[in-house]
Design goal:
Blueprint (H helix, E strand, L loop, with lengths): L1 H27 L11 E7 L6 H15 L3 E7 L2 H14 L5 E3 L9 H5 L38 E2 L4 E2 L1 E2 L2 E2 L2 E5 L1 H8 L8 H17 L5 E3 L3 H15 L1 H6 L10 H9 L8 H14 L11 H9 L3 E7 L3 H7 L5 E3 L25 E2 L2 E3 L6 H11 L2 H11 L2 E2 L32 H10 L1 H4 L5 H47 L4 H30 L15
Parallel strand pairs: 1-2, 1-3, 9-10
Antiparallel strand pairs: 3-13, 4-5, 6-13, 7-12, 7-14, 8-10, 8-11
């Protein structure tokens, strides 16, 4: 008993010491109550844990702290799979970092107006860190390659800017030329979709006699979605443009949802049926069970030489090139085109890639050091700061005048072509995206078919779409109500300052934006209430119970 008692006492002392040590570490870290480091602390949270961005951010922080010795910046990298839950908990608890990476992919429209600072006035002013560069004196938002014209930074429903961006991304085909040479006697990737089909046949013959079968594409739920989503959405481009009643070079997701309820389209449209068939075709070229695998599994499959190619974003480029035991080649994926004959008959083109900048960074409204946080955002998006990030991370810059060397230009997005503004697979809302994932096996499994998928999918899709549309309209109602007092106040100020032509010119623009947003809201509510009979009249219930 004495021995057990001594062991228990020893264990208790160790546990208590560890606990007290943890308390001491937390209380004495920079910015904490007992810290001897009196620098102001900025915390920067993001989910980019791939090779490259963390090193780039560390390099920017080092340079910024050299220029601003009274400020310390802490990088907080959180894995993507738990990031949203972690962020919401931090925001609600009042302990969120000063800078937060946030984007529309989370389908969380309530967060920006509740927790982030709107920076519309700031982006109209020059970035002070661009002095002595060609961007000196230019307003901040015009120093970005896309003018911050992206839903991740400018939220249309709220008529305000809520973030700035750090990089530009694209989707590319990374392939193993050595393995390709071994199988096809050529190290060159397919140049068109017909050549992709021919490669599929050669690979099938190789696998019959090979001890280790090779997949055409490295597979995971994420990488599979990248290629399948493009197959159906590119096929639906012509349908999207023909339904574009507002002539906006393609419909936005909310308008696509409204038009579905009005009966303007469905998944049995010839274009989308064809896209579904090609989704099934390309899915057969990913390893069985890919839907149950995470991104890391696809990366490992490709790096082990178990697949010829991996389709992923340039965010993975640094990881792939640094870890691969073979030289990696890069190309654009040859999506179907009308020049491919019947297989490409619905594929309009060329299609431009999204030219929006990315890695959106928002300012926490409750940041205790807003001045310093804004100053840090200015630095990392300046020519100097963004050059440091690009050189250390390998990710394309978001800021103009940052020089991209020739070897990295293969990653630059294709700017010319038709815009593809809506994803028919995962872009209409969280509930419809979840429904796709749940029912997709009816399409891509060995026993699956387009008809079997639609029989199951169409039963649940209308209700899921309505729920997604209701979520969007609730957020729009809140934002419209939020904007009305500000618009009224601005109108009164304009009258008092009638001599300022700039203010007089801006008033009809901002008020017309509000009017258009309201019109879209009422159209969505009418479609939810009436469906195909939307031309009728109905009392509108703004509570959306």
């Amino acid at each position: 008993m004495a021995v057990k008692s001594r062991r228990f006492s020893y264990g208790l002392v160790v546990a208590l010491s560890a606990y007290l040590g943890a308390i001491f570490t937390v209380m004495t870290r920079p910015g904490a109550t007992l810290s001897v480091d009196q620098r102001k602390v900025i915390r920067f949270a993001h989910w980019q844990i791939e090779a490259g961005p963390r090193e780039g951010i560390d390099a920017m922080i080092k340079r910024y702290e050299e220029l601003n010795p009274d400020v310390r910046v802490d990088q907080v990298a959180v894995p993507g799979r738990i990031y949203m839950q972690w962020l919401r908990t931090q925001l609600i608890g009042g302990s969120a970092p000063d800078i937060v990476e946030f984007g529309r992919l989370f389908n969380a429209d309530d967060i920006p107006p509740r927790f982030f600072e709107q920076i519309s006035d700031l982006v109209e002013q020059p970035n002070p860190y661009n002095r002595g560069t060609p961007l000196e004196g230019i307003r901040w938002r015009d120093t970005f390659l896309d003018g911050l014209d992206t839903p991740d930074t400018y939220i249309e429903n709220l008529s305000n800017f809520y973030g700035v961006t750090l990089c530009m991304l694209s989707t590319r085909l990374f392939y193993n030329p050595e393995l390709l040479q071994e199988i096809t006697r050529s190290p060159l990737a397919p140049a068109n979709f017909l050549e992709v089909r021919a490669l599929t046949e050669k690979l099938a013959r190789h696998n019959v006699s090979s001890a280790q079968p090779v997949s055409l594409y490295a597979g995971s739920r994420f990488n599979g979605r990248l290629i399948m989503e493009q197959m159906i959405s590119r096929a639906g481009l012509g349908l999207n443009l023909s339904n574009d009643r507002l002539r906006e070079q393609g419909q936005q997701a909310r308008d696509v949802a409204v038009d579905y309820l009005r009966g303007s389209w469905n998944y049995r449209a010839p274009e989308l049926l064809h896209g579904l068939k090609l989704m099934k075709e390309v899915a057969q070229n990913l390893r069985p069970g890919f839907q149950q695998l995470e991104r890391d599994a696809a990366m490992q499959e490709f790096l082990r030489g178990q697949s010829l190619m991996i389709i992923t974003g340039t965010w993975d480029a640094t990881s792939l090139t640094s870890m691969a035991p073979f030289k990696i080649a890069v190309a654009e994926f040859p999506w179907p085109a009308m020049s491919d004959g019947p297989v490409g008959r619905y594929y309009w083109g060329p299609v431009s890639e999204p030219t929006n900048t990315s890695f959106p960074l928002c300012l926490n409204r409750n940041s205790p050091h807003k001045k310093e946080t804004i100053d840090f955002l200015h630095f990392i998006t300046s020519v100097e700061g963004n050059t440091i990030f690009f050189e250390q991370s390998g990710w394309l810059p978001a800021t103009r005048e940052v020089v991209v060397p020739d070897e990295a230009k293969v990653y630059l997005p294709r700017f010319d072509g038709l815009p593809m503004r809506t994803s028919y697979m995962a872009g209409l809302g969280s509930e419809t995206a979840e429904l796709w994932q749940r029912q997709l096996h009816h399409l891509i499994s060995t026993q699956g078919s387009v008809e079997r998928f639609l029989e199951n999918f169409e039963d649940e899709f209308p209700d899921a779409l309505k729920n997604d549309l209701k979520t969007k309209t609730r957020a729009l109602v809140v934002s419209l109500r939020h904007d009305i007092p500000a618009l009224t106040a601005l109108a009164q100020m304009d009258r008092r300052q009638a001599g300022d032509l700039r203010l007089l010119a801006s008033r009809p623009i901002r008020e017309s934006n509000q009017t258009i947003a309201e019109a879209r809201l009422y159209e969505a509510l009418a479609a939810l209430a009436l469906g195909t009979a939307v031309s009728g009249s109905v009392p509108i219930d703004l509570t959306l119970n």
